[in-house]
Amino acid sequence: MNSNNTPSSSAGGPGSAAADSTAPPTTRNSKRPKYSRFTQQELPACKPILTPKWVISAFMLVTVIFIPIGVASLFASHDVVEIIDRYETDCIPEDSRKDKIAYIQSSGDKTCNRILNVTKHMKHPIYVYYQLDNYYQNHRRYVKSRSDQQLRDRDSENDTSACKPEDKTANGSTIVPCGLIAWSLFNDSYSFSRNNQNLSVNKHGISWKSDRDHKFGKDVFPKNFQSGGLIGGKHLNESIPLSEQEDLIVWMRTAALPTFRKLYGKIEVDLVAGDVINVTLQNNYNTYSFNGKKKLVLSTTSWLGGKNDFLGIAYLTVGGLCFFLAMVFTIIYLVKPRRLGDPSYLSWNRNPGGH
Amino acid sequence: MAFGTGGRRRGKKSKVHFTKLCNFACCRSSLNDEHSQIGQSGFSRNVHCNDPDNLEQLQLRYRDNYVSTTKYTALNFIPKSLFEQFRRVANIYFLVVACVSFSPLAPFGATSILFPLLVVIGATMAKEGVEDWRRRKQDIEANNRKVQVYGRNQTFEETRWKNLRVGDLVKVYKDEYFPADLFLVSSSYEDGICYVETSNLDGETNLKVKHALDVTASIHDESSFQNFKAVIKCEDPNDDLYAFVGTLCHGRQYPLSVQQILLRDSKLQNTDYIYGVVIFTGHDTKVMQNTTDPPSKRSKIERKMDKIIYILFSTLIMMSSVGSVFFGIETKNDIHDGKLTRWYLGPGNATVFYDPRRASLAAFFHFLTDLMLYQYLIPISLYVSIEVVKVLQTIFINQDQDMYFEETDKPARARTSNLNEELGQVDTILSDKTGTLTCNSMEFVKCSIAGIAYGRGLTEVERALAKKKGGGPPEVGDTSFDAEGSNAELVDTGRSIKGFNFQDERIMNGQWVKQTHSNVIQKFFRVLALCHTAIPDVNQDTGEISYEAESPDEAAFVIAARELGFEFYERTQTSISLHELDRESGKSVDRSYKLLHVLEFSSARKRMSVIVRNPENQLLLLCKGADSEEEFMSWEEEFLKAQTSVTADRDALVDAVADKIERDLILLGATAVEDKLQKGVPECIEKLANAGIRIWVLTGDKMETAINIGYACSLLRQGMKQIVITLDSPAVNDLENKGNKEAIAKASISSITKQIKEGLSELSSAKESSVSFALIIDGKSLAFALDENLENSFLELAMKCASVICCRSTPKQKALVTRLVKKGKNRTTLAIGDGANDVGMLQEADIGVGISGVEGMQAVMSSDFAIAQFRFLERLLLVHGHWCYRRISMMICYFFYKNITFGFTLFWFEAYASFSGKPAYNDWYMSLYNVFFTSLPVIALGVFDQDVSARFCLKYPLLYQEGVQNILFSWQHILGWMFNGFMCSMIIFFLATNCIKEQSFRKDGKVVDYEILGVLMYTSVVWTVNCQMALSINYFTWIQHFFIWGSITLWYLFLVIYGTISPILSTTAYRVLVETCAPSPFYWMASLLIVVSALLPYFSYKAIQIRFHPMFHEIIQRRRLEGLET
C-alpha cells in the first residue's frame, strides 16, 4: 500500500464544477487586475462640452463659411443662361388637340417648328437637353427591366430574364437591347438653325465614358429592336454597336426623379443675344397618355453646373440662420451671464428619499 | 451532521465512539422508513461494487463518467445556436425577409439582404462558439485527469476520469479531486475516516469528516479487494448535496448515509488516500445535477427596448400600408378607360405584381415588398452590438483595480452581462447584515461570568454611538477615525490577535485565579474550549495553534479560551485535549476529555452541546454548563434512533431529542462577540444615501442591536426621525402568554395597522421640513405587514423613508420584502448578501450582488455580480452602474436615430418613385449601412463614453439619480431621438432633391441620375449620423476619433473599391465616385450643406437645453471646465 507516486493535485481546479470557484492553493498567482489606462478606463480623452464660447464660435464658423459659398453659388447660377421651350401641346395641331394620344399614335408626319429667342450671350458649349415630366424612370418595374449582361457582352445575348415583357419578339427571337427602358427610348429629334444656317449638334460625349467603355459592348449590335407589334420609341441603327449609341446610353442611365432632363447634344458655337434659333423637331414621343410635359432646353454651364439658385439660397439661409443664432446666444449670454458652473445648480435635489 | 459511525480504534483524528450501539441502531433502522423504498421508483439504482463488468451492471447502462458542460456539440451547434437566435422577434423578421428576398417581391438582391443577417448571426454564433469552446477545453481537462482504478489483474492501474464506470473501485490520494460520487470504502486511517474540502460545491473551506462503514473500513489490502464484492442499492441521481439514501448488501444490509459519500469535485485533504466505489458517474453526480445556468434576468432598459422595437414594427407596417395603398392606386391608374397611361411601364402585359387589372392584389404583394424595403427601420445589429458592448463592459468591471480586494485576492466579478445598465438605476438596496456590512469575523470582546462583566474593549458600535452623541454628524470621507481607533488598540496590547479584542487585567494573564468566582471562571472557559467542533492546526515550526472552525464565532471562543489559558490543542475522534492553567498551582497542565457526543448547532435550537467525560470521570453536558448523568443512556438510545432514522424529518427528530437533554443547565456566564463592520461601510452607505438610494437592512438581529448597527454604519443618522413598528407591546405580550393564536393575530394586525397609519401621518405632517425618516420593523410585525391587506400601506410608508431596518427577519421574509419592493413600486431593487440565507433574496431582486466573503460561495453562485467588500458597491453603482446606464441608453437611442434617419430617406424617395418599391440606394450600400458605416462608433460609444470621470461620479453621488429617474431613457428622450432622426431624414432628402433638381451638376453638362442622387444622399446620411455621434458623445479618445472618422472614410474607400469592380457586380456604383461625383464641386458643396443643416436642429436644441435646463452631468462638466473642481 505504498503511495510513492502520489500525484500532485491538478492545477486549474475542476473545470466541470461550478465555474469560477477558488483556485487550488497550489497556484499563487494574484488575481489583481493588471493596470492599464485602457482597462481602468482612464485613456486620455478630450471632453468637449457646449460652452457659450463654443456655441457662438460654431455658429459663427458656419456663418463665415456658408455665406461666401452661398454668394458664390448664386453668382454661378446667375451666370448660366438657359432657354426652355415647352412644346408638347404646341406641337400638336389645333384640330388634333382634343385627342392628343390618337395624334401621337398616328403614323403621319409630326414635324413641328419652334422659335427660340436668345436673350443673353451664350458661350459654347451650349448643352441641349430634353426634359420630361411625370415620367417615372425610377419605377421599380422599369428600372429592373434591362439586362446589363446583354448590353455588355455579345455572348450573353440571351440573358434576358429580367427584360420581360420586352425580351423576345413574337416569334421568339431575342431583342437586343431588351427591356422596357431600351424599348421606351425617347425619339423626339431636334435640328437647329440660325439665320437659316444649320447649327450642328454634337452628339458625341454626351454619355459617361465608363458607360460607353464598360457597360455597353463594342461588339453588341441592336437586333430585333422595336420590331414587335407595339413600338415604344426610337429605332436603332443595327450597324452601329451599342457603345456608340449615345442616345441609348444616356437614356439607359435612369433618372432619379419623375422630372428629369437628359442630354441631347452640344452646340459648339456661341449664341449671341438677339439670335433667333429655329428648331425643327419631330414630335414622336408619347407623353400624352400620362399627361407628361416635354421641354427643350438649351443651357450653358458654370463651374457648378446648370442653373439652380436653390443651393446658393440654401447656403445663404443656413448661414444667415446661424448668424442669427450666434447673435441670439451672444445676447442671452451677455444679458444673463448665469454661469453654468454656478454651484446653486448643484442643489438640484429631486432626491425622494431625502437626505 | 458530524455524527456517524466511527472506528473502534483510536485513529489520528477520530471523533465518535459509540460504534456498536450505532451499528445496532443503523441495522434496525434499515428495516423501516425510507430504506423500505429502496428498489422502488426514485430509489432504483444498483451498484455492483468492484464489479463493473458484472452482466447485471452492464445491463443497467448507467452513464459513463464523461462530462460535458458545453451548451452545444459539434453536431448540434449550428441548428441549436440558430434556433436560439431566431427566438428573437426581430431576427425572425429578418429571416423571413431573407427568405422572401429570393422571390421577385424583393426590392433588392437576395444576397444584399442575407449579408447583414449572416454577419449578425455569424457574430453572435462566433461568440457562442468561443464561449462554448472554453467550456469544452475545461471539460477535456477534467475528463482526462488520471485516477487509480482497481483492475482485473488485482492491482491499481491509472486510467482517465472519463473511462470510469459505475462499480469501479478507485484510489484517490491526498489533494486530489474525487472523479465521481464515491462510496467511501476505507481510508488510510484505520477507522476509515477521511477529510474532504467541498469549496467547489458550496464554497465552504472548512474540512468535513466522512466515515466509512465499519464493515468495510478494515479493507486496506490490495489483495483483499479481490474478494470485496457488494451491491449498493440507492437513490437515483438527484441534486441534494446533503442527503443520500442507500443500503450496502455485503453479507447483510447496512444503511448508507451521506457520511459515506464522497462527492465529485470535492477534494481529499489531511488523509493520505482513500478507496471508494463509483456510485454516480458523469452527469449523474450530485455536483453535475446541481449545475444550473447563471440566473437569467433582463434589464428594464432591454425590456423597454423591446417595446420600442414593437413601435418601430408598427411604424414599419404603417409605412408599408401607406406605400401599398398609393402603389395600388397608381397601378390601377396605369390603365385608364381601357387605355394605357404609363405605357412605358408595360402595364398591358404585366405580371401580377404590377397588373393594373388586379391592382389590389398587386398592392398586397407590394405591401410585402415594402416590409422588406423599410427593414432598415429595425436595427438588425442592435442586439449583437449590445451584447458585444455588454461583454466589454463586464470586462471593465472585472478589471477594475479599485474593486479588487487584496486580502482575499478577489476582484469584482460580473457573472452576467445582462444587467450592467440596471446597476445605474437602482432605487432600493436590500442588504443583509452579517458578512455583508460586517466582516463576519467575530471578535471576543466581553464576557460576564457569575454576574460580573469583564472586558474593557470598546466595540465599534459603542464608538460610533459615542461619536454621534459627542460631535455633530461625521464628515464625509472621514475614514481616519476607525484607523486611529484600531491602531490605538494595537499599541495597547502590543500584539493583535485575530478574533480577540478583549482587555481586562482582572482575568487576563492568569489573574483570573485571584477572582472570587475563579471556579466558575474556570468552568466557563472550559466550556469555551471544549464545546465546539473546531479542529486545531499546529504549526510544526512555531508551535502556534490555529483553528479551523465552522463558524467565525466558534473560532473566536476557542481563541478566547486559548488566550485566557485554556488552550485546545488536540482533537481525536474520541477526545479533546487542552493545556489548562491549573487553578491551584497556577501552572499549565494537560487535560484530556473523553468526547462522548456532539450535539451540533442547529438554528432551531440555537445552541450546541458536547457531552464529555472529564479526567475525574464526571460526565458533563457542556452547553452552557450542566452535569446530568441520569437518563443519559436512555436518552442516547433515543438520540441514536433519531440520528440514524434516515428520513426526511430526521433533522426535526434530532432537534427534538437534543432538546430533551439540553435542560436543567446551570448558567455560568455570557459572552459577547462583536462582528466588526467592514472597512468603509458607513462612508459607502452615506454616499449611497446621498445618491438617493434607499437602503433597507434585513437582519436577524434583535431591534436594539439593529438600531445600534444602523447608527454605526450611518444608516441611521443624527436628526433622522425613527418610526418603529413592533409587536413588543404589553397588550400583545399578554395575549401571547395566554396563547390564543387567533386573538394574537387579530390584535397584532390591528396594532400594526395603527402603527403604520401613525407613521404615515407623521410623514405627511413633516412633508415640508427636510427631516428624513427611518423605519424600523421587527420580524413578527413584518410577517403581518407583508400580509396582502397591509402590504400596500406598509410599502407606502417604507418607500417614504430613507432607510428601513427589518430586524429578526427570516430568509423567506427577506425574499418576500424584496419581491414587495420590486413588484409594488416597480422600482429597481438590488439585493446584496453573502450567505446561503440570502440566496432567495438575491434571486428575487432585479440585481443580486454576492459578497464573496467567508460564508462560502452559495450567495455568489446565485448572484449577478460578486464583489469582495460592501464598500465596492459604491463604485459598482455610482461609477460602473452610472456609466453603463448612460452608455447603453445612449447607444440604443442612437441606434434608433440612425436607422430612422436612413429608413425614412428610403420612404421619401418612394414617394417620388410612385411607391414602386425602388430603393434610393444601391443594394450593397444598404446592406453595409448597419454593418460597416455606422456600427463601430456606436459600439465605441457603448463601451467607452463617460459623461464625467469616476472621481466626479463619486464626488457627486446625486448624479446617480439620472439613472434612477431614467432621464436618459425616458419616452420623452427616446421619442426625441426618433424625431431627430425623422427630421434628419427629411432635411437630407428634401435638400438633396431640391439642390439637384433637373439641372446639370457639372461643368460638362451631365445631369444627375438615379445613381448620383443615391450617392449624394447616402454620403449625407453617413456624414450626418457619424457627426451626430461626435456631437453627442462626451468623451473623445483616439478610439472614438478612429471609429467615427474611420467610418466616414470607409464609405469613400468602399465607393472607390466597389466602383472599380466589374459593372455587372457594382451596377449603379460603377466608378460613381471617381468618375461622376468626386470631380464635381457641386457634390461636395451639396454634401456640406446637407450635413450641416441636418445637424443644426440638434445642435441648437442642445445649446439651448444646456443653457436653460442643464442636466446634472452637464453642470459637473462645466464646473470641471471652469476649473472649479480640481
TrEMBL record, chain A:
<keyword id="KW-1133">Transmembrane helix</keyword>
<feature type="region of interest" description="Disordered">
    <location>
        <begin position="1"/>
        <end position="37"/>
    </location>
</feature>
<comment type="similarity">
    <text>Belongs to the CDC50/LEM3 family.</text>
</comment>
<feature type="region of interest" description="Disordered">
    <location>
        <begin position="145"/>
        <end position="169"/>
    </location>
</feature>
<protein>
    <recommendedName>
        <fullName>ALA-interacting subunit</fullName>
    </recommendedName>
</protein>
<feature type="transmembrane region" description="Helical">
    <location>
        <begin position="313"/>
        <end position="335"/>
    </location>
</feature>
<dbReference type="GO" id="GO:0005794">
    <property type="term" value="C:Golgi apparatus"/>
</dbReference>
<dbReference type="InterPro" id="IPR005045">
    <property type="entry name" value="CDC50/LEM3_fam"/>
</dbReference>
<feature type="compositionally biased region" description="Low complexity">
    <location>
        <begin position="1"/>
        <end position="27"/>
    </location>
</feature>
<dbReference type="GO" id="GO:0005886">
    <property type="term" value="C:plasma membrane"/>
</dbReference>
<feature type="compositionally biased region" description="Basic and acidic residues">
    <location>
        <begin position="145"/>
        <end position="157"/>
    </location>
</feature>
<keyword id="KW-0812">Transmembrane</keyword>
<dbReference type="Pfam" id="PF03381">
    <property type="entry name" value="CDC50"/>
</dbReference>
<dbReference type="GO" id="GO:0005783">
    <property type="term" value="C:endoplasmic reticulum"/>
</dbReference>
<keyword id="KW-0472">Membrane</keyword>
<feature type="transmembrane region" description="Helical">
    <location>
        <begin position="54"/>
        <end position="76"/>
    </location>
</feature>
UniProtKB/TrEMBL annotation, chain B:
<dbReference type="InterPro" id="IPR032631">
    <property type="entry name" value="P-type_ATPase_N"/>
</dbReference>
<feature type="transmembrane region" description="Helical">
    <location>
        <begin position="113"/>
        <end position="130"/>
    </location>
</feature>
<feature type="transmembrane region" description="Helical">
    <location>
        <begin position="974"/>
        <end position="992"/>
    </location>
</feature>
<comment type="similarity">
    <text>Belongs to the cation transport ATPase (P-type) (TC 3.A.3) family. Type IV subfamily.</text>
</comment>
<dbReference type="InterPro" id="IPR006539">
    <property type="entry name" value="P-type_ATPase_IV"/>
</dbReference>
<keyword id="KW-0460">Magnesium</keyword>
<feature type="transmembrane region" description="Helical">
    <location>
        <begin position="1081"/>
        <end position="1101"/>
    </location>
</feature>
<dbReference type="Pfam" id="PF13246">
    <property type="entry name" value="Cation_ATPase"/>
</dbReference>
<dbReference type="InterPro" id="IPR059000">
    <property type="entry name" value="ATPase_P-type_domA"/>
</dbReference>
<feature type="transmembrane region" description="Helical">
    <location>
        <begin position="1042"/>
        <end position="1061"/>
    </location>
</feature>
<keyword id="KW-0547">Nucleotide-binding</keyword>
<dbReference type="InterPro" id="IPR008250">
    <property type="entry name" value="ATPase_P-typ_transduc_dom_A_sf"/>
</dbReference>
<keyword id="KW-0472">Membrane</keyword>
<dbReference type="InterPro" id="IPR036412">
    <property type="entry name" value="HAD-like_sf"/>
</dbReference>
<feature type="transmembrane region" description="Helical">
    <location>
        <begin position="89"/>
        <end position="107"/>
    </location>
</feature>
<dbReference type="InterPro" id="IPR023214">
    <property type="entry name" value="HAD_sf"/>
</dbReference>
<dbReference type="Pfam" id="PF16212">
    <property type="entry name" value="PhoLip_ATPase_C"/>
</dbReference>
<dbReference type="InterPro" id="IPR001757">
    <property type="entry name" value="P_typ_ATPase"/>
</dbReference>
<protein>
    <recommendedName>
        <fullName>Phospholipid-transporting ATPase</fullName>
        <ecNumber>7.6.2.1</ecNumber>
    </recommendedName>
</protein>
<keyword id="KW-0479">Metal-binding</keyword>
<dbReference type="InterPro" id="IPR044492">
    <property type="entry name" value="P_typ_ATPase_HD_dom"/>
</dbReference>
<dbReference type="InterPro" id="IPR018303">
    <property type="entry name" value="ATPase_P-typ_P_site"/>
</dbReference>
